[in-house]
Amino acid sequence: MEFITDTLAVFPALFGAVPIVLQLAAGAMLLALVLGLLTALARISQSKVLRAVAVFFVEVIRGTPLLVQLVYIFFVLPSIGIAIDPVPAGILGLGINYAAYLSEVFRSAILSVEAGQTEAALSLGYTPTKALWRVVIPQSFVVSLGPIGNYFIAMVKDTALTSVIAVTEILKTANILNSQTFQTTEIYTAAAILYLMLSLPLARIVVLMERKARSRG
Amino acid sequence: MADNIINVHEVHKTFVSEDKQSLWDRFRGRTHEARRVEVLKGVNLQVTQSETVVILGSSGSGKSTLLRCINKLETIDSGRIYVHGHLVGYREQNGELVAERASITAKKRTDVGMVFQHFNLFLNKTALGNVMAPLRDVKKMSAADARTKAVHHLEMVGLGDKLDNYPTKLSGGQKQRVAIARALAMEPAVMLFDEPTSALDPELVGEVLAVIKRIAEEGTTMVIVTHEMQFAREIATRIVVMDQGLIVEEGPPEIIFTNPQHDKTRALLSRSQTSPN
Lengths: 217, 277
Ligand SMILES: Nc1ncnc2c1ncn2[C@@H]1O[C@H](COP(=O)(O)OP(=O)(O)O)[C@@H](O)[C@H]1O
Ligand SMILES: [Mg+2]
Prior knowledge:
heterodimer; A: mainly alpha; MetI-like fold; 9 helices; flat; B: 6-stranded mixed sheet; 4-stranded antiparallel sheet; 10 helices; 12 strands; binds adenosine-5'-diphosphate; binds magnesium ion; cell membrane (chain A); MetI-like_sf (chain A); transmembrane (chain A); amino-acid transport (chain A)
């Protein structure tokens, strides 16, 4: 009984970190969507150079841990004169990392729209660029909605990693509380529950969005 | 000739399919084999205003490639294709073909409507949305004008009651009629049909052929690739027979069907007479 009330008592302090988490996740997702789409377009472009750059980017990012990337941005970049505050650094690190994964989602979604639709658009007088943006990308976006949603949920949880670069998100806040009160079990139980409270409704929303998108086609 | 809508002159086209070269072969400096298929071997074809040209030929003879070259969905190696007196996809420089800007090609393509074997509808749009999209995106019409025009063309192909259906909720015949309405609404100078009924269940073929026939009767210039011999005979003002990348015989249907000169034409006609449909 005492454990439950003590755990509940931790929540108000942790709630204060929720806006930062949402800010991180929303900012990083926006960056990841834009950068991911650009990377996907580069990968399917005619230009060998663009394709090579995109492949290199994706492989480097996917081949190294997100934690190392965050540390690199926050602790290594300042040594070459690029100092970034914790929250922007977190958004940058998470955004770039997820862009690499989302680019693969976008690329396969774009390729999944049959070439015949593009040919029809061309024969109707669309330029190749216009066919891509008006015909292919809207459809690949619908196909990508589910994976994008799932990556967003994963990203909300991955914001915990930014605790190592001094972002006072949920985990960092819990660490601080723990060093003051040593109620380790209660504090981290509350933190875990808080992450669940964020991710479960999001998972529900993703399912609903997917269902809605599917019912149209 | 000035009233030539399409003028295909000595067109050659070879497909080169590059076999994927392994890293090891490249390392060894081994040159890789490219498979080359000459699909068009010097094709000449003129289509004038209000003609209905039907192209016959067995599978693989190059019919689709010829249609696709006419609106530059394929490149050509040599020769010239003029639509309304203009090259499509190219400009001529010192006697050579040079690729032109994509936006210029796009503008010229609005003169050529194309209907594909597999419909190629935009799957995220309703029947109405499919016909409206190019009117909005390419012709820059207002939503209201595009809608009026799209509804008109869908009614013409008998789909006035299916405006809000997505392609998944349409039969093959209905999909193809939407595709025809979509191409016609752009008011092209010529319509190309590439086996418009080959992907349809037999009982749906008739409704599509009826629509095409009506369009022909309205004087639309058309080039149709089809295996429907009876239809070809009824609708064509001229029959063109292709074999292995060449036009081997052409003429009015009453002559081609009653007195074919080329072995290939005879073979095609006899095969269609012995087959059940
Ligand atoms: N994109 C391509 N790459 C390689 N070969 C092709 C390609 N398209 C068509 N071909 C070949 O060209 C020949 C003619 O094809 P096509 O024009 O489709 O004939 P048809 O429409 O008369 O059946 C066939 O042998 C086919 O395999
Ligand atoms: Mg064909």
